[in-house]
Design brief:
With 687 residues, the chain is α+β, with helices and mostly antiparallel strands. It folds into six domains: 66 residues, Helix hairpin bin (Helix Hairpins), CATH 1.10.287; 243 residues, DNA ligase/mRNA capping enzyme (D-amino Acid Aminotransferase, Chain A, domain 1, 2-Layer Sandwich), CATH 3.30.470.30; 107 residues, OB fold (Dihydrolipoamide Acetyltransferase, E2P) (Beta Barrel), CATH 2.40.50.140; 73 residues, DNA polymerase, domain 1; 72 residues, Orthogonal Bundle (DNA polymerase, domain 1); 68 residues, Rossmann fold (3-Layer(aba) Sandwich). Strands 14, 15, 16, 17, 18 and 19 form a six-stranded antiparallel sheet that branches. The protein has a five-stranded mixed sheet with strand order 2-13-12-3-11, with helices on both faces. A hairpin with a 3-residue loop joins strand 17 and strand 18. Helix 1 runs antiparallel to helix 2 and helix 12 runs antiparallel to helix 13. It starts with 7 loop residues before the first helix and ends with a helix.
């Protein structure tokens, strides 16, 4: 035991020995599925290490097996920008769509000899792991693909993620990407425990994994027993490894293929899904897909499709990304599962835009690993197409394995005298007559004071990605609107602690805290305010783009649809929607009231004006370390000036911005005669 190790040299040697033994045992158990010692032996050695470190805390290291679970909950998660986009994949739902993807990338860079790597698409949450000098330093969620959340404390609890790479001479920085998930057996055990505790069950393993990763208390995450499969290895420019794991200076010693990357990830100490395959044709890809479509239900985890990647890493780099997806990969999704059930009733939901959506309330049925008790009917036209009656037996499908929908009615099983379902003529919440705009399938309530519309708008406004007002949940918002305390977004900022304290489950202290949280939301940036307004077609990413290019409410309100549409990533439909919203006289009182309340309607940092976009139409690639700007700062400056930044060099690249230790991109730029710029030359272009 630790008290028997007296002299410092022996103590340090014993610490090193214990860490090595426990790390080896953990790797054998969790990664290799080949336990090397009894649990009782592991526990005894672990306690000895704990005792030694407790007596000598100055000897604790970040990669010690005892340091996986933090003692204190995090106050919040910080946002982190992905240096390389961590976008989701484009989906294909049949062989024809897979063929179209193949044709698209070949039009950019035709490679007749290209092969593919097929991997199972694990149904979990994508995360990016940064290792510095071989030690795990940061774990980040996907987020919107460009910005994620730092959840390092939670990542460290996942036993299949090594705290130190199996690498004797690691590079300064390395990024590993993969999927965090909850195995089915663990998922069932978690739900059983929640049943016994009287808590609501998790809907499915994916939601359970995503929710677990966003817990502020890592001790709760550790109890959820998440797992991890690695699938991607990202090297900084100019850093590479050869097969002996020694850092090299030649970029060509990096893994040249996706297959080599997966093998290297295994040697670094990660779990890699064993059910992968190299394919030389789309026919082989389809055969792999068909095999796992029929065998997936025997796997110990949920999979919702197959990921198809081009094997050649250089080809991946040349193809790069669209503004949403990598061009070199696609997710081929399994056919949606179907099951019969009975319609108990149909309810009509009113959303924040006034759209009235019919929802079938069903006899619960198991579908794609979840219990389905409700399914969308979309609109009145769909109800008519289904010829839906109360009590009908219907076939329900999970579209894209996510949203349940009714796909057909089994009319031959209809009960005698069953009443037909029809859309209501008046709003189920406020009673005002509903309208169906010409050319639309959606029936709408146009009463801006409708409690359902106000509630939906408020829930969007207070959501995490908008104004992020902690403590304002759905039930509380519904109380505020039902009691008439809040009839618009601006009314939130007039609430008093006494008014809030009068609501159910709200004491004086909670009310005071909520007033403080509402006041704090006034400091949220212009981009969040813009997103929170709930303008049709303006999501979080579009709001950030628009706020960069139009740094104030005045600038965006005055912009023409043509000027808005010129912004990269904003099309005509979004531009027209934004212009209509700001020109609508009915929205002006709200904007005036929010400005008077003190909300941020202008960027606090200088931003290029829409009229002065010297880099409009130009495409840039950034490589190496710039003297004074980070990559994200340089990217933001270029985009604010109308330029576009991509991750790979092609014939369409206008300039490559070169910093210290530039890598293979520099060679590619020279081969394609792409003009190279220093940071100073970039600043001159921006001037």
């Amino acid at each position: 035991m630790s008290n028997s190790v007296s002299d410092p040299q022996s103590r340090f040697a014993r610490l090193q020995e214990l860490r090595h033994l426990l790390t080896q045992a953990s790797n054998a158990y969790y990664i290799l599925d080949a336990p090397m010692m009894e649990d009782s032996v592991y526990d005894r050695l672990y306690r000895e290490l704990q005792d030694l470190e407790a007596s000598h805390p100055e000897l604790i290291t970040p990669d010690s097996p005892t340091q996986r679970i933090g003692e204190r909950p995090a106050a919040q998660f910080n946002s982190v920008r992905h240096e390389i986009p961590l976008y989701s994949l484009e989906n294909a739902f049949d062989a024809a769509e897979l063929q179209k993807w193949d044709e698209r990338w070949r039009r950019i860079e035709d490679r007749p000899d290209a092969d593919y790597v097929c991997e199972l698409k694990i149904d979990g949450s994508a995360i990016a792991l940064t290792y510095r000098d071989g030690l795990l330093s940061r774990g980040v969620t996907r987020g919107d693909g460009t910005l994620g959340e730092d959840i390092t404390q939670n990542i460290r609890t996942i036993r299949t993620i090594p705290l130190r790479l199996n690498l004797p001479n690691p590079p300064a920085q390395l990024e590993v990407r993969g999927e965090a998930f909850i195995p089915l057996e663990t998922f069932e055990a978690l739900n059983l425990a929640r049943d016994q505790a009287g808590e609501e069950r998790f809907a499915n393993p994916r939601n359970a994994a995503a929710g677990s990763l966003r817990q502020l208390d890592a001790r709760i995450v550790a109890q959820r027993r998440l797992d991890f499969f690695a699938y991607s290895l990202q090297f900084p420019d100019g850093v590479a490894l050869d097969s002996t794991f020694e850092p090299q200076t030649q970029p060509q010693t990096q893994p040249q293929t996706q297959w080599e990357s997966l093998e290297l990830l295994q040697r670094l100490g990660f779990r890699v899904n064993p059910n992968r395959q190299r394919c030389t044709s789309l026919a082989e890809v389809q055969a792999y897909f068909d095999q796992w479509d029929s065998q997936r239900h025997g796997l110990p985890y949920m999979t919702d499709g197959v990921v198809v990647k081009l094997n050649d890493v250089r080809l991946q780099t040349e193809l790069g990304f669209t503004h949403r997806f990598p061009r070199w990969a696609i997710a081929l999704k399994y056919p949606a599962e179907e099951a019969p059930t009975t319609v108990k009733q149909v309810t009509f939901q009113v959303g924040r835009t006034g759209a009235v959506t019919p929802v079938a309330e069903l006899e619960p049925v198991q579908l794609a690993g979840t219990t389905v008790a409700r399914a969308t009917l979309h609109n009145g036209d769909r109800i008519a197409e289904l010829d839906l009656h109360l009590g009908d037996t219907v076939v329900v499908r999970k579209a894209g394995e996510i949203i349940p929908e009714v796909v057909r009615t089994l009319a031959e099983l209809r009960p005698a005298g069953a009443p037909a379902i029809a859309m209501p003529s008046h709003c189920p919440r406020c009673g005002q007559a509903l309208v169906r705009p010409e050319g639309e399938a959606v029936t709408r309530c146009i009463n801006r004071a409708c409690p359902a519309i106000v509630t939906g708008a408020l829930l969007h406004w207070v959501s995490r990605d908008a104004l992020d007002i902690d403590g304002l949940g759905k039930k509380l918002v519904e109380q505020l609107t039902d009691k008439g305390l809040v009839r618009s977004l601006a009314d939130l900022y007039r609430l008093t602690a006494d008014e809030l304290a009068s609501l159910e489950r709200m004491g004086q202290k909670s009310a005071q805290n909520l007033v403080g949280a509402i006041a704090a939301s006034k400091q949220r940036p212009w981009s969040r305010v813009l997103y929170g307004l709930g303008i049709r077609h303006v999501g979080q990413s579009n709001a950030q783009i628009l706020a960069q290019q139009f740094p104030s409410l005045a600038a965006l309100s005055a912009a023409t649809p043509e000027a808005i549409a010129q912004v990269y990533g904003i099309g005509d439909e979004i531009a027209q929607s934004v212009h209509r919203w700001f020109q609508d006289p009915a929205n002006q009182p709200l904007l005036a009231a929010l400005q008077q309340a003190g909300l941020q309607f202008a960027s606090t940092t200088a931003s290029a004006s829409v009229g002065a976009q010297p880099l409009a139409g130009l495409t840039f690639v950034i490589t190496g370390t710039l003297p004074s700007l980070s990559r994200s700062e340089a990217k933001a400056l270029i985009e604010q000036a109308g330029g576009k930044v991509t991750g790979s060099i092609s014939k369409k690249t206008s300039y490559v911005v070169v910093g210290a230790d530039a890598g293979s991109k520099l060679e590619k730029a020279a081969a394609l005669n792409v003009t190279q710029l220093s940071e100073a030359e970039l600043q001159a272009l921006l001037a």
